[in-house]
Write a structure and sequence with these properties.
The chain is an alpha+beta fold and about 350 residues long. It is about 25% helix and about 35% strand.
């Protein structure tokens, strides 16, 4: 069943515009991630979808049904909260069956559906345990099981991994993706963590100041950002000014780094147009200084385990960041640089 958001706005009593006309069509079974910095409107949007708040204007449709003002308990949606919100006095099985009991499902059917959910989520051995006897990953599965047991049309997840440490968050992220793929329930996941968004989402909705900045697959957002904000929020990028050059061999740019090959030219841009050029740190290769067309002095080196992050200042005056393999030998303060490719956007003046 599709979920459609039609020109949703939300203005609070103090005049704050949390959402400014959000329209989005979500297909059945899609995993959609709402991504953006704090205050961008993603949590407000989730609350409007869930029925925990009402919009100032606009509509929410589930299939062909207008549910804009339908109470949350009648929206056929499951929700997983940031802290999982498991009932501490209930067992795993009781937690999973809670929503079914509230909906008046008979004891026999409730037991059957709970047992099926325990089996699917590999929780049968833990059925009688209390939440405080479970690991973080097990608690996550119970919270998912409780939300999925009611067979919701839409599953809503409000930053369920935020409170966890980095190592646990990484392992649970993979487990969560497998679970969502297994059930193929239409899912909307809120996060401010770009890594979570890239690994979990079929499509990612980047929000900024109450507006949708861009919607696309993780790969499309990374390789073809629509704005400077997306280019820098999804991953990281060095930003420099440039002049567009369109030739038979493809688009390039004249920059302070020298000629740079572009992945694509900005739509409608003419030869000679001023553009912003974004270079991903991993697209900067360090080469021996001898014979290199572009020389740079190393300002700072950070060891990040599998990578080295280098801050360098070129002889042309540009300061950029490069990300290279950890085993790269840096034996001198002066190195050569090679730019593999870059992203071009119209000059925004931000």
């Amino acid at each position: 069943m599709t979920l459609q958001l039609d020109r949703l706005t939300k203005t609070y009593r103090d005049g704050t515009q949390a959402l400014r006309g959000i329209s989005l069509l979500i297909q059945p079974g899609e995993i959609i991630v709402l991504l953006g910095p704090s205050g961008c409107g993603k949590s407000t949007l989730l609350r409007l979808i869930a029925g925990l708040d009402v919009p100032t204007s606009g509509q929410v449709y589930l299939g062909t049904r207008d549910i804009t003002y339908t109470p949350a308990e009648r929206r056929d949606m499951g929700m997983v909260f940031q802290n999982y919100a498991l009932f501490p006095h209930m067992s795993v099985a009781e937690n999973i069956g809670f929503g079914l009991r509230v909906r008046g499902i008979t004891r026999a059917e409730r037991q059957q559906r709970v047992e099926a959910m325990l089996e699917k989520l590999q929780l049968i051995p833990l059925a009688d345990r209390r939440p405080d006897q479970l690991s973080g990953g097990q608690q996550q599965r119970v919270a998912l099981g409780r939300a999925l047991a009611i067979n919701p049309s839409v599953l809503l997840l409000d930053e369920p991994l935020t409170a966890l440490d980095a190592q646990l968050r990484e392992s649970l992220r993979s487990e969560l993706r497998r679970t969502l793929e297994q059930f193929r329930t239409t899912s909307i996941y809120v996060t401010h963590d770009q890594t979570e968004a890239m690994s979990l989402g079929d499509r990612v909705v980047v929000l900024r100041n109450g507006l949708i900045e861009q919607v696309g697959t993780p790969r499309a957002l990374y390789q073809r950002p629509a704005s400077a904000f997306v280019a820098r929020f999804i991953g990281s990028a060095n930003r420099i000014g440039g002049v567009l050059r369109l030739t038979a061999t493809g688009p390039s740019a004249e920059t302070a780094l020298g000629p740079v090959t572009l992945a694509a030219a900005p739509a409608g841009a003419a030869d000679g147009a001023l553009i912003d050029v974004f270079v991903r740190p991993e697209d900067v290769t360090v080469v021996p200084a001898a014979g290199a067309a572009l020389l740079a002095a190393i300002v700072q080196v950070e060891f990040l385990g599998d990578r080295l992050r280098l801050q360098v200042r070129t002889t042309t005056g540009a300061t950029i960041t490069a990300s290279v393999a950890a085993h790269t030998m840096i034996s001198t303060n002066l190195v050569g640089l090679c730019i593999r490719q870059a992203i071009a956007l119209p000059t925004a003046g931000e």
